[in-house]
Design brief:
Blueprint: E1 2-5, H1 11-19, E2 24-28, H2 38-46, E3 55-60, H3 65-75, E4 79-82, H4 88-97, E5 101-107, H5 112-118, E6 125-129, H6 148-157, E7 161-165, H7 173-177, E8 183-186, E9 191-192, E10 195-196, H8 198-216
Parallel strand pairs: 1-2, 1-8, 2-3, 3-4, 4-5, 5-6, 6-7, 7-8
Antiparallel strand pairs: 9-10
Length: 217
């Protein structure tokens, strides 16, 4: 199972995340308490070792393509994660201009499975997240994980990755990974006072590794 550590917003965060076993390091370019600028990301990544082993993900919410393209070029993004109400037409235009993978965030709701179908021919993966009236993501709250198998099955019908986000942390991750998502995405769950916490990341990875070992035995 893949791990994405998102919401990195300092040199400290990038250093800690780069040392981890996470395959993906995420940065939020949308308005948020963890918002960063492309130039900051470029500088932080240039000053750490291990970045070449990571996929760099940029998170955007209903942003202009020009701004996304600029961030891709400056921060050398591998993946663009769209967290808003971006239309299929918008994603088609983005793909035509930018040579990156695109993940679409689908917020858990009654019509979420239909939303997966809407983007099936346009994206490389889905990320299922929780949404509140005040935030598109990063809420630190879970949704009902018993729905996770439905999302995974639907995504796999289209040969797409399916990541799960929202309120995941070392103490509850075991309840999620039993559903075997392709990956998990978390920010606050491995933070202490808004800073990435290396010990929490280790605890999380130990839970994942323990589960993977039990499967292979």
């Amino acid at each position: 199972m893949k791990l994405k550590i998102c919401g990195n917003h300092s040199a400290h965060d990038v250093k800690v995340s780069s040392r981890s076993d996470a395959q993906y390091i995420g940065f939020v370019f949308a308005t948020s308490k963890r918002q960063v600028q492309p130039e900051q990301v470029q500088q932080w990544l240039n000053n750490v070792q291990g970045k070449e082993k990571k996929q760099i993900v940029g998170v955007f919410v209903n942003e202009d393509i020009d701004i996304i393209e600029r961030a891709i070029n400056i921060a050398d993004l591998n993946i663009v994660q769209l967290h808003g109400t971006e239309s299929p037409e918008f994603i088609a235009q983005l793909r035509a201009r930018c040579n990156v993978d695109v993940w679409k965030v689908i917020h858990h709701a009654d019509d979420a499975l239909q939303m997966l179908e809407q983007y099936a021919n346009l994206v490389d993966g889905y990320l299922i997240d929780n949404k509140t009236d005040k935030a598109w993501g990063g809420t630190g709250t879970t949704f009902n994980w018993t729905f996770v198998p439905e999302y995974i099955n639907k995504a796999h019908q289209y040969n797409k990755l399916c990541f799960i986000a929202g309120g995941i942390n070392p103490s509850n991750v075991s309840d999620l990974i039993k559903f075997k998502p392709d990956g998990i995405d978390l920010a606050s769950g491995v933070e202490t006072e808004l800073k990435k916490d290396g010990q929490k990341i280790i605890q999380l990875q130990e839970c994942i590794d323990s589960y993977d070992d039990n499967i292979t035995e």
